[in-house]
Amino acid sequence: MGRSAEQFRIGIVAAKFNEQVTSKLLNACVDTLTARGVREENMNVVRVPGAFEIPLVARAMAKSGRVDAVICLGAVIRGDTPHFEYISAEVSRGIGQAALDTDVPIIFGVLTTETVAQAVVRADTKKFNRGGEAAKSAIEMVMVMRQVNRMRQKSDAGPSAGPRPAARRPAD
Ligand code: INI
Prior knowledge:
Oligomer: single chain
Largest sheet: 4 strands, parallel
Strand content: 15-25%
CATH class: Alpha Beta
Helix content: 40-55%
Bound molecules: 5-nitro-6-ribityl-amino-2,4(1H,3H)-pyrimidinedione
Number of helices: 5
CATH topology: Rossmann fold
Order of helices and strands: EHEHEHEHH
Distance between the termini: 53 Å
Structural class: alpha/beta
Strand order of the largest sheet: 2-1-3-4
CATH architecture: 3-Layer(aba) Sandwich
Shape: globular
CATH superfamily: Lumazine/riboflavin synthase
């Protein structure tokens, strides 16, 4: 992909909860963005207490007009509490809603696992590397939205901006 993402501005919201996992996700994410050409000064990282707090901050970042995509990173681990159900449902719903509200790609890099060991494997750069995957998805989605927005601008400009309709054949 070379350095096509050089001008991209990426917001990252990372939960502190389960830090041993989320720090790995964050490092891998930043490393992949850097490898794809995103400049450090164009990455805006915000840490929040837990995954539950991610959607509000992701939405605010997206609404700021200063980022092309937002990446959300967190680890919700079931353990023994029903907390898991509430938090995982809310974070996924909230992130999806934030993207639809703002028209900015918001990437779901939040792990939801039964155990810490499963989360560690998913964060491991030599295994699932979910942090790096989230970075790649963000770059891909910035390009997708640019393509869609170009289509949108053309259709807003009216029919003359689009391809010419085929010449009508005279009726038989
Ligand atoms: N936050 C997480 O990010 N992961 C978890 O596994 C988790 N559990 O299991 O409780 C968790 N809880 C904190 C929550 O996200 C909020 O920060 C807290 O409830 C304050 O609003």
